Amino acid sequence: MRVTEQPREEVLEAGLESINQVMAELDQLKIQSERLDLINRLHKRMAGVLSMTGMIEAYSVWLMPIVEHELIGYSNAARNKKHLFCSGHGPSRRKAIAFAEQLISKNDQSTIVENSEGHFGHKWIFETVEDTGILLILKEGRELTERELQVINDSLIVLAESLQRGLEYEDLFERASSDSLTGLSNRRVFDERIQGMMDSATRYDNPLSMLSMDLDRFKEINDNLGHQVGDQVLIAVANVLSDEVRSTDLLVRMGGDEFLLVLDNTNRNSARILAERLVRKIDELDVWADENVKLGVSIGLTQLEKKESLKSWMERTDDILYHAKAEGRARVAVS
Q1: Domain 187-334 falls in which CATH fold?
Q2: Burial of 58 (0-12, 13-18, 19+ CB in 10 A)
Q3: Which fold has domain 13-177?
Q4: pLDDT for 251-281, tens place per residue?
Q5: CA angle 138, 144, 97 (to 5 degrees)
Q6: Where are the chain's structural domains?
Q7: What does the pLDDT average to over 56-74?
Q8: b/e string for 101-129 if b means 16 or more Cβ within 10 A?
Q9: Coil, strand, or helix at residue 276?
């Protein structure tokens, strides 16, 4: 029996085809291994981060060597939360943030958007995070490549899980840091922030003013109208105060009917204008315990002095509030 041998060319061709197949499989394994390594690095980077802002920043730092970008953001409309992390500065930063705001406000399902200046925005909707989370990647001059998109798609599960953890942490933190009745910050937040505000004011030689506020006739409101009405009054007062302050200020319910407001980069004269407006606003609530007793607010106002301690500043503010009460209530006393 005679065995027919394959031509040498066919043998070589078959061998090359096998080698090419093996090399392609090795390349694919290498790509998969690199992706797994990248995801493992992301896991490690995100594992120790609790805050939403920290997570967005950590994700941006992880992604930057792989996908160069200008801004990453997260928006949750259901909770009215938004976190933007931008690596740019000056005009480019403002433009990137404006474009991000535009993308967040859009309700369509477009995943790629280009603005008039050639910036590209990519967004993904996280179904695992209340169906409202949106990730924004901004680039200039080009869209993301298929490989870059694949890297991001691979990372979204890790990011979504981290964001969910961050939302749960924020819920816990807000409950621990907020007054349960009015929603204002509580004494814990004051203790955490005040020294930093004082240090910053001293470092940059900026004025810092404190308003200590105590409601007038609130005991009579509670006694005559009941504690439920008293709670409603406290909520109404908190809303008035919140409407008049900036995000950089520190507004706290210290307890009972006492509130504290620290005004960033605000001198005594400017603080007095606001304080007098608050007295009028509380008066305009038009709350009466009876035909002769009306709700008001007394305010003691001081400006931080050079090298003054927190203890001294608060005692001085409390003393001047006492003077406001003694002088007839529903007024501002200034030190």
Answers
A1: Alpha-Beta Plaits (3.30.70)
A2: buried
A3: Beta-Lactamase (3.30.450)
A4: 999 989 999 999 999 999 999 999 999 999 9
A5: 5
A6: 13-177, 187-334
A7: 87
A8: eebbeeeeeeeebeeeeebbbbbbebeeb
A9: helix
